[in-house]
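User: I'm putting together a teaching handout on how multi-component assemblies are represented. Below are the sequence lines for each component of a complex, exactly as they appear in our records. Could you produce the 3D structure of the whole assembly as structure tokens, so the students can see both representations side by side? Please keep the chain order the same as the input.
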Amino acid sequence: MKARQNGRGSNDAPHGCANDSLSGRLLAKLMPLNPRASGTEGGMTVVSARSSEWVRPVTQQDPASAIIEIDRVSQVFQTSARKDHVALSDISLTIEEGAFVSILGPSGCGKSTLLYIVGGFVSPTSGAARMKGQAITGPGPDRGPVFQEFALFPWKTVLGNVMYGPRQQGVRAAEAEAQSRALIEMVGLKGYENFYPKELSGGMKQRVALARTLAYHPEVLLMDEPFGALDAHTRTRLQNDLLNIWERDRKTVLFVTHSVDEAVFLSDKVVMMSKSPGRIRQVIDIDLPRPRRRNELLLDPRYQKYVVDIERMFDESDQAGAPA
Amino acid sequence: MMSRFFSPNLVLGIAPILLVIALWQGLVSFGFAPAVLLPPPGFVFGRLLQQLVTSTFQHEIAATLIRLFAGFAIAVVLGVSIGIAAAASPAINAVVRPIVRVLAPLPKVALYPALLLLLGFGHGSKITLVAADALFPILLSTYYGASTVEQKLIWSAMAAGSSRYEILFKVVLPAAMPSILTGCRIGLVISCIVVFLAEMITSTDGLGHALVTAARTFQAVDMFVPLITISLLGLVLNGLLGVVRSYLLRGFPEA
Ligand SMILES: Nc1ncnc2c1ncn2[C@@H]1O[C@H](COP(=O)(O)OP(=O)(O)OP(=O)(O)O)[C@@H](O)[C@H]1O
Ligand SMILES: [Mg+2]
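Assistant: Of course. Below is the structure of the complete assembly, with chains in the same order as your input.
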């Protein structure tokens, strides 16, 4: 279904109504939880984006408590070519509040799918994801996604994009603007408030996307290869800036990447996944001091050991051939 | 892509028009067509300027413009709302699709006699015909644009707290705007053609009516004046739409 949704331009004649493949496409995209996975669970319920789970009891939790629990989540996709493709198999993972957790794995191992499940964009075939003990039933402003494709609104300026979230949250225009300007400055784009996304470089676009998500104060950042489309230099700078921002307010971050360096440099914890079916291979705690400075870290033998060890583990799994 | 107006290409755009006029002048000058049947362009434009200041001719232009604008506006409103609704709701789509399939290829002029009987000889019948003809390109392009909105734009809005209903207006509609405006451009051209056609068939006023009246009395010059007027109107309206388009799509890379 994802493939079909993304496969634009191939056979879509511009005569929409006459083309059956388009019908219901927008609806599917509007569904907070796409009922597209084949399930043994029976009826998949579709819940409005404004679900009651946003209204959380204001309980003070201790810093090390779990914020996200992924409980034996499996995802099976029914595709036309391959019947019942197991994208995720029995994933269990607990993410602590304030932790920076990276998900690392080869292409197609289900990293994005796992992130979408936590985001509430996709509902798992079986198992459940919970946020602060409550089942995730749809997207909500407590979990803010940042996508590799930036996904900025092209018709809005930088300021308009960043203000979108606060305005949706009912913040008054003047106040939302002030907050947004401050955030734009924080991500280093002061002076670009009235630019349109098309006038920005890839790195700048991703800064805007980050600011747009931070603007509605999500408790968890869900980042899906946010720097994957950037050149090495821009990538490094954004990694540093992300770390600085994160070290300031210690939001929980779930960060998908397939770069070992990036994962080790940024994270408290690296979740290594393997492919077909997507499973968690190993969870590695990265015990490196913070605040982390890139130039210090690169010389640190502990950092080097983490990188080498993780790379070796991936090589081993590659050599082991196709897993069962 | 369609030609742009209000750009350096303006000069390039005017060149072929001048060429056509030169050809026209040539046909008359070299006696390929008798001047009584094909008056020279200078004559026609002179007559046009003369006519433009008369209140009768202004009345004809006004009548045509009112019908064109009203019909086009109705087509835009209906086309965009039905297109978005059909893209968002399978139930509406199930109803709309067969209707569109049956009605889209139908020559709407065939409905005109019925419309005349129903709505009379005034504005109503012509406006309805214009709207009916301009509706389908706008509806189809809106539907297409809404159906191909990037998933992650919608997800980003959902995560920011927008409801599905809000997303239709705040994300789907603006994201589909390039496609919608392409449909509008086609719809506008069709509107110009259809309003003129309808006035030619049966009307008591309007540019099309002026042409038919002149033709019946063999006034070749007066026959060409409404023709030139409607193409000039079309040119200006298309230019205006181009301005609206570049304003609305100022953030889009392709605009
Ligand atoms: N909507 C879908 N329908 C069918 N199959 C899907 C769908 N989404 C993902 N898949 C399949 O599930 C598997 C995991 O996809 P996913 O996008 O989560 O991988 P990934 O780890 O993020 O890969 P990458 O690093 O390339 O982004 C892939 O094999 C993919 O083909
Ligand atoms: Mg991915």
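A couple of points students might notice: The CA atoms of residues 67 and 248 of chain A lie 19 Å apart. The beta strands of chain A are 66-77, 85-96, 100-104, 126-131, 134-135, 143-146, 220-224, 252-257, 269-274, 279-285.
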